[in-house]
Design goal:
Length: about 220
């Protein structure tokens, strides 16, 4: 509103009042524009994809994303389903999964044969501590499920299992009779060759602790 408009409407405003009105109008336009940008579905999905990439194998729950995005749980779950549908397409080599309501990106099974070839054609990499721990659990307790491995290690094992499968150090060995019939895992002949074992009986015995020894170890 300018001075002329004020006269036409029969309301005369001072210069300061006009500037205040124009400033308030501009602020509202900027706020509306910013809110519109953020609420665009494509932009929100991109933000969620970036967050999923950052959390990696740890994953993130829908409730956590809802808080971060300042959205309802229902809206957040819709966004996650949209991303799942998007990456279900065969043009993508990754997919969005939810284990225990924990969302994370993983590579699709079609990638496994190529990953095995990649590991075979590159220099032999030393196994990480996490990989050795996971292999040890499988070797000593096979056949074993992912849930059992995670309970023993205290961290998610899905990505590590995929890496070990890609290296052909472990393999799927049927399914458990437990609820949900989870996949069972056991070590492969390549694992035996890598660690120069003829049978698993050659693995060293696990240490046995009495209750007194365990108490002493806690205070060493």
């Amino acid at each position: 509103m300018n001075k002329l408009e004020s006269y036409i409407t029969g309301i005369e405003l001072t210069k300061e009042e006009i500037e205040a009105i124009e400033k308030e109008s501009l602020v509202k336009k900027v706020e509306k524009l910013s809110k519109s940008d953020v609420e665009q579905p494509g932009n929100i999905e991109a933000i969620v994809e970036g967050l999923l990439y950052i959390v990696g194998d740890d994953g993130v729950k829908a409730e956590q994303l809802a808080i971060v995005l300042d959205k309802s749980l229902e809206d957040t779950e819709v966004i996650l389903r949209n991303i799942q549908n998007k990456y279900a397409s065969e043009i993508y080599g990754i997919e969005l999964v939810a284990y225990g309501k924990n969302y994370k990106f993983v590579s699709k099974k079609d990638v496994y044969p190529y990953a095995q070839e990649l590991f075979h054609t590159t220099k032999q990499n030393t196994l990480s501590q996490s990989a050795l721990e996971t292999l040890a659990i499988i070797a000593y307790k096979q056949p074993v499920t992912r849930i059992e491995i995670e309970e023993l290690r205290g961290v998610g094992a899905d990505m590590m299992l995929r890496k070990l499968l890609a290296r052909n150090l472990i393999k799927e060995a049927g399914r458990s009779d437990a609820p949900g019939r989870p996949i069972l895992y056991e070590v492969t002949d390549e694992f035996m060759d890598s660690f120069k074992l003829v049978t698993l009986n050659e693995l060293p015995d696990l240490p046995e602790y009495t209750s007194d020894e365990e108490s002493e170890n806690l205070f060493e």
